[in-house]
Amino acid sequence: MTVPRPAAASPEPPRPWALLAELTHACPLHCPYCSNPLELARRSAELTAAEWADVLRQAADLGVVHTHLSGGEPLLRPDLERIVAAAEGAGVYTQLVTSGTGLDEDRLSALRAAGLRSVQLSVQHAEAAANDRIAGRPSSFAAKERAAALVRRAGLPLGLNVVLHRDNLDTVGALVELGESWGVDRIELANTQFYGWGLLNRAALLPTREQLARARETVEHHRERLAGRVELVWVVPDYFDGIAKPCMGGWGAVSLTVTPDGTALPCPAAASLPDLDPPNVRDRPLDWIWDRSPAFARYRGTAWMTGPCGTCPRREEDFGGCRCQAYALTGDAARTDPACALSPDHHVVRALTDPDAGVTPPLYVHRRPGAVPQVR
Ligand code: SF4
Ligand code: FES
Predict the structure, then answer these.
(1) Model confidence over 228-243: pLDDT tens digits?
(2) Ligand 2 atom closest to Cα of residue 324
(3) 20 to 30 A Cα–Cα from 144, which one of 19, 71, 279, 347?
(4) Cα(18)–Cα(21) distance, rounded to whole angstroms?
């Protein structure tokens, strides 16, 4: 493994503006593309509401203005209202990222009273039966439909989030129309990023090039049609284009993640890096974590870069791609992201996206402790 050079000494790292607060890994759904780590945090290890309140105050002092309250399913936290109120008190905008399961009128009204500003609802498919099959939970589509209606009635901004893969990409047009009929303001169509459970299911979830081309065309059509009414976001599938994504807007540059047990990470998947030794908010103040911890400095800026990134004119734009993907595909997080066509490891990605003709992909398995996917 390449030992990265330390980041260039910087008197003042950039300030973060966003915090992904993973309140719990517990979830009523079992999505096969879940990016949560394979080893989920125990409920008994979760930060308390008082600890989250402290994290949110410190985050605000650091410059954070926006937090995604996520999971797992954050509605499983009975003290979610206290956490929302703490964010509101600290002046941090809150967005609840939820599957919709467990949201009723009383809960939404309590969250709204606590200061909740917006909701992002996940959907797995435009058809109820297929949605429930992918989510691994009966009646979950009906719960989402009810949740969407409640949020609209409460007058909160509502976004739809769809993770796209081989099993739903051909219905992207129907998904956009579903969001429209539910009155959403924004639809995020995010091609699966392969981390955690999604990485284990990669062979089953990877779409074909033909599927992607058709979906892109459909999204373009709807984007023009909905211009000025619904924002349509297409998160590019970086395995297919030979272009690395500017992951997280750069390592330790604009946002941070705090996991249910208080581990602070420069990105949600960074717990997969074996030698990162991430700090914990129970042990260190957040400003130390952001400004001075070795984990946040490790891949900040460009001084750590190896291979073609080191001299590439795009290195300030894409930051060498994704460290977690580089590690997942090469075993070395400091290598150029193999999604980039200039990477000496790009053939690894090509082999995944252009499999031998006639090979049938395996079935995915749902996120459940002990589940073992087939490997192609
Ligand atoms: Fe980006 Fe590195 Fe590829 Fe250049 S070589 S385009 S910096 S990933
Ligand atoms: Fe960790 Fe991209 S997901 S750097």
Answers:
(1) 999 999 988 899 989 9
(2) 1
(3) 19
(4) 9
Of 80, 99, 90, 79, which is closest to residue 34 (Cα–Cα)? 99
Give the span between the Cα atoms of 364 and 152, in whole angstroms: 34
Contact indicator for 187, 158 with CB cutoff of 8 Å: no
- Residue 15 CA: distances (Å) to CA of 9, 12, 111, 291: 16, 8, 28, 9
In this structure, the strands spanning 231-235 and 186-191 are: parallel
Q: How many residues does this entry show for the chain?
A: 376
Return the beta strands (E) in the chain as ranges: 18-22, 66-70, 93-98, 118-122, 158-164, 186-191, 231-235, 255-258, 264-265
CA of 86 to the centre of ligand 1 (A): 40
Question: Residue 271: CB within 6 Å of ligand 1?
Answer: no
pTM value is: 0.93
Structure tokens at 147: 């949740």
Burial of 360 (0-12, 13-18, 19+ CB in 10 A): exposed
Nearest of 152, 162, 84, 154 to residue 121 by alpha carbon? 162
Per-residue pLDDT tens digits for 316-366: 999 999 999 999 999 999 999 999 999 999 999 999 988 776 678 888 989
By C-alpha distance, which of 121, 102, 113, 95 is closest to 154? 113
329 CB less than 6 Å from ligand 2?
Answer: no
Q: Which residues contact 139 (CB under 8 A, 6 or more apart)?
A: 132
| Pocket of ligand 1 contains residue 69 by CB under 6 Å | no
Q: Using alpha carbons only, give the angle 153, 154, 160 rounded to the nearest 5 degrees.
A: 75
Which amino acid is present at 247?
A: C
Whether 315 is in the pocket of ligand 1, judged by its Cβ within 6 Å, is yes
More reliable by pLDDT, 3 or 13: 13
- Rounded-to-integer distance, Cα 372 and Cα 364, Å: 9
- Distance of alpha carbon 251 from alpha carbon 4, whole angstroms: 14
Report the nearest-CA residue for atom 7 of ligand 1: 315
Asked if 99 and 140 count as a contact pair (C-beta separation under 8 A), the reply is: yes
The ipTM estimated for the assembled molecules is 0.92
The bound ligand whose nearest atom lies closest to the alpha carbon of 265 is 2
